[in-house]
Design goal:
Layout: H1 3-15, H2 18-25, H3 29-43, E1 48-49, E2 56-57, H4 59-79, E3 93-98, H5 99-113, E4 122-127, H6 129-137, E5 143-149, E6 159-173, H7 183-189, E7 191-193, H8 199-210, E8 217-220, H9 224-232, E9 238-241, H10 242-251, E10 255-258, E11 266-273, H11 279-293
Parallel strand pairs: 3-4, 3-5, 7-8
Antiparallel strand pairs: 1-2, 5-11, 6-9, 6-10, 6-11
Helix pairs in contact: 1-2, 1-3, 1-4, 2-3, 5-11
Length: 294
């Protein structure tokens, strides 16, 4: 398998667009399509459901994406070996951020880490929650932060340090909250959500299925800011950590929270560390996340 084909596939998934992937890679769209086709031919299966917009991964595509991310990280690490001078080398701390938190946390963590004595050499990347958990288990990354909905469990073998809890809120276009007096009515309106792999989506689906309610996805939108814009246009409802909704509301008052007595979920906020991660570095990272949200 050509590594360029794999890299192209990862870019298409991360950007949910062949057009954006082609621009970032500096190739035309036909080349991107051909590279995806090369992979599907080798794997003897389909990676994307091409009837959906944006593109959705098939079950095979999800497995290839998770494994492909690990392969690319290993190749990147191998390429950097020649630059590591043993006597002066400070081990790089690899930090994972869920896609849902990336815009809010990456720059903040990079800035705050420079103020510490132990996180001076960090590499931050983002990924879906399931991918980050797998990377922690395989010790491909050292630390990750999560906001885990209260109806989902962290795998028992992970070292999870809880920082606190945040409200998980259902949001609609301003002036329409009166229409949704209970969670069932919300479910009938339909949702604006991330593609598969997001724990917020997984949590919502679990709650709906447990209550025998339909799971209607009106739009799949990558990025919390874009989701909020979609709700602003009246295209559906969304679920968000309250600080994210509050931050958006400071500059745009076109949305409102739906007050629900039968929506029991909240978010457990914390960090996960690998088995070999230094305690001092883990504590320093925890304090950065804690400062951001608490």
């Amino acid at each position: 398998m050509d590594i360029r084909d794999l890299k192209t596939f990862i870019y298409v998934v991360d950007n949910q667009s062949i057009t954006i992937a082609s621009e970032k890679l500096g190739v035309n769209q036909s080349t991107v399509t051909k590279r995806i086709g090369n992979m599907e031919e080798i794997l003897k299966g389909v990676l994307f459901n091409r009837k959906t917009r944006p593109l959705q991964l098939t079950s095979l595509g999800e497995k290839v994406y998770l494994k492909g991310c690990l392969i690319l990280k290993e190749l990147e690490a191998l390429a950097n070996f020649s630059y590591q001078v043993e006597e002066h080398y400070t081990k790089q701390v690899k930090i994972g951020i869920p896609h849902t938190l990336a815009n809010d946390l990456i720059d903040y963590i990079a800035f705050e880490a420079k103020k510490t004595d132990v996180l001076t050499n960090i590499d931050i990347s983002s990924g879906w929650g399931r991918s980050l958990i797998q990377q922690i288990q395989l010790e491909e990354i050292d630390l990750a932060t999560f906001m885990i909905p209260s109806n989902l469990n962290i795998p028992a073998d992970l070292l999870f340090s809880k920082i606190g809890t945040l409200e998980f809120v259902v949001v609609c276009k301003r002036g329409e909250a009166y229409k949704y007096s209970n969670f069932e009515k919300c479910s009938k309106k339909g949702w604006i959500l991330h593609p598969e792999g997001c724990c917020f989506r997984e949590s919502l689906a679990k709650l709906l299925y447990e209550r025998n309610l339909g799971f209607y996805i009106n739009r799949e939108v990558f990025g919390l800011e874009l989701q909020l814009q979609s709700i602003l246009r009246g295209e559906g409802l969304g679920i968000f950590p309250k600080p994210f909704f509050d931050k958006f509301s400071l500059k745009n008052n076109g949305l409102e929270r739906i007050e629900l007595k039968d929506f029991p979920l909240h978010l457990n906020v914390g960090i996960v560390r690998s088995q070999t991660m230094d305690n001092e570095k883990a504590r320093s990272f925890l304090e950065i996340v804690k400062k951001r949200y608490f």
